[in-house]
Amino acid sequence: MLHLTECPRDAMQGWPTFIPTPDKTAYLNALLRVGFDTLDFGSFVSPKAIPQLADTAEVLAGLDLSQTRTQLLAIVANLRGAETAAQYPQIRYIGFPLSVSETFQQRNTNKSIAQALDDVAQMQELCARSGQEQVVYLSMGFGNPYNDPWSPEVLGEFTQKLADLKVGIVALSDTIGVSTPATIGPAFRELTAAFPQINFGAHLHTTPDTWREKVQAAYEAGCRRFDGALGGYGGCPMAADQLTGNMPTERLLEFAGAEGVGPQLNQPALAEAMRLNQQIFVGH
Fold first, then answer.
1. What does the DSSP 8-state code read for residue 222?
2. At a CB cut-off of 8 Å and minimum separation 6, what does 5 contact?
3. Domain range annotation of the chain
4. Which pTM value belongs to this model?
5. Which of 27, 67, 133, 148 is most deeply buried (CB count within 10 A of its CB)?
């Protein structure tokens, strides 16, 4: 079975108009009823950086976790954010973007890769104390616009550092929408073979006509953990092609069904979530 992470946080965070807190909460509760494995629901970052998600704590307080198998994931940008997330035991995963591009790491978090790795180490210790699990996203995971080094070997070097810290989940993230089967396949093939103790995920961005080849390449190379967002909203402001966005969850479900590895989801709840999705992203 595929492990599916639904990412409304990624869909919402760059939305140009503020989505009211009750609307966010209702949408997330609908998604919780669907039965995805993980829900990337919000982030604990500076409101100046991402004002759309300044209400994450308030939204979290309104979530009904009583009848769902879905685990919550929150994104953080530094140790301070992780310390905040660790105060909420209902959050299972704490996600941190670690860039394989030195330039982007500096621009995104105002820290060097070495400093970010120090944060990862401290967050790993924090998660061990709080009973949570860290998910490290290797951003710029398929290339970058700065001519910083990239190759499957570079990804392997970063992953070795994470393995040494006992990080158990690593997601390759296509920050700018440049992934192709030619880069996706070798990356996952080499990493899954070299680090069997790590659960590798794919956070891919896509245009409407390239989604299948990307998912197929990752799947055939051993990836079983995929991120998506209903409707494909959000996800890729740096992409050259304006049609590039998050991997649509409905496409992941289509692929999983064809392969016979689809999760058992609550279909009426999924239909209701899609209705609210359109209400939020078309209505606002």
1. T
2. 36, 37, 38, 39, 40, 73, 201, 225, 226, 227, 228
3. 3-281
4. 0.96
5. 27
